[in-house]
Amino acid sequence: QVQLVESGGGLVQAGGSLRLSCAASGRTLSSYAMGWFRQAPGKEREFVAAINWSGSTSYADSVTGRFTISRDNIKNMVYLQMGSLKPEDTADYFCAADPSGYSSITPRQRTAAGWNYWGQGTQVTVSS
Questions:
Q1: Rounded CA gap, 74 and 116, in Å?
Q2: Are 79 and 21 in contact (CB under 8 A)?
Q3: Is the N or the C terminus of the chain less surrounded, counting Cβ atoms within 10 Å?
Q4: What are 13-34's pLDDT values in tens digits?
Q5: Within 10 A of 128 (CB to CB), how many other CB atoms are there?
Q6: 31, 25, 1, 28: which is closest to 100 by C-alpha?
Q7: 10 pLDDT exceeds 90?
Q8: How many CB atoms lie under 10 A from the CB of residue 107?
Q9: So what's the pLDDT on residue 29?
Q10: Distance (Å, rounded) from C-alpha 91 to C-alpha 80?
């Protein structure tokens, strides 16, 4: 069983930065794809970014150029560096893990259905 715990959320002004962290336990996730999703009140969970076992990344158009996903396989950690934050980035952010060893992030993995394990989320609020 894989456990994921997010941290690093908070309140930030528009234009600011935050770094979210996801700590994984239960097994070594170096062969897993790892992803970040977000869900705003009243909206569906949406894809933000993902990184596969080889370091191949994929981003939602809305965050490309502003967010960077990275992983530290030794520490079993995944990070989401968020910059140039906008009020529309306000949401609960969730870490996800998938054991599929694809060579790149698949279209299915750009949806919530493509992931096996989820964290509880961390809240990000961007004030204008």
A1: 21
A2: yes
A3: N
A4: 999 999 999 999 988 889 999 9
A5: 9
A6: 31
A7: yes
A8: 8
A9: 87
A10: 14
**What string of H, E and C letters represents the secondary structure of the chain?**
CCEEEEECCEEEECCCCEEEEEEEECCCCCCCEEEEEEECCCCCCEEEEEECCCCCEEECCCCCCCEEEEEECCCCEEEEEECCCCHHHCEEEEEEEECCCCCCCCCHHHCHHHCCEECCCEEEEEEC
Say which residue the tokens 């992803």 belong to: 35
Phi, psi of 10 (to 5 degrees): 165, -165
Mean pLDDT, residues 104-109 taken together: 94
Give the model confidence (pLDDT) of 27-84 as tens digits.
888 999 999 999 999 999 999 999 999 999 999 999 999 999 999 999 999 999 999 9
In sequence order, the β-bridge partners of residue 7 are 21
| Cβ-based neighbours of 2, under 8 Å, separated by 6 or more | 24, 25, 26, 27, 29, 32, 97, 116, 117
State the virtual CA torsion across 56, 95, 78, 25 in degrees, nearest 10.
-120
